[in-house]
Amino acid sequence: xxxxxxxxxxxxxxxxxxxxxxxxxxxxxxxxxxxxxxxxxxxxxxxxxxxxxxxxxxxxxxxxxxxxxxxxxxxxxxxxxxxxxxxxxxxxxxxxxxxxxxxxxxxxxxxxxxxxxxxxxxxxxxxxxxxxxxxxxxxxxxxxxxxxxxxxxxxxxxxxxxxxxxxxxxxxxxxxxxxxxxxxxxxxxxxxxxxxxxxxxxxxxxxxxxxxxxxxx
Length: 217
Prior knowledge:
By secondary structure, the chain is mainly beta. It has helices spanning 2-14, 90-97, and strands at residues 63-67, 71-75, 81-87, 101-106, 114-121, 139-156, 162-176, 180-187, 191-198, 201-215. It has a domain at 57-179 and 202-215.
């Protein structure tokens, strides 16, 4: 009897008596590891700059004329804004042929013999009549023509004086700005730096302008 009691106690403790065995309870622990990174980004912005000419600014160019072989110009009174239309050799052609020269161009895809631009800065018309086409002292930037129509006529008298006229209509101009750079820094598990650049393009409308002038022989 004592032996039977001891066996029962052992069975109960180990849970091994009977036909079924209780399932074991399995446990596990999962450990996840990782790393984080920090990044820094730089941005740069270009712009057309302060004081861009207003739309239809040709109305501001109240002082007009022509010179050389052949250059038309129009400028505002304080000489901070000037339109320059350069037509290489047109005055000489009028003098040499003795006939009236009449030409027209679409300016969206004009050749190198016609140069149309707007100068902006200080004293911008100072070198307009320079035969080498040099820029003016103090000039800060130049807007290149993007579109419009140019009509020009020129004729010379016996003394060689050239009477010239031009009409520029629906003119638009564009300015490609220089790129600007910037930098930024961010911190995390790691740190980083970055730089970026941006270029901005501004387009302005000049409008319509007509210029008549005489160039002495």
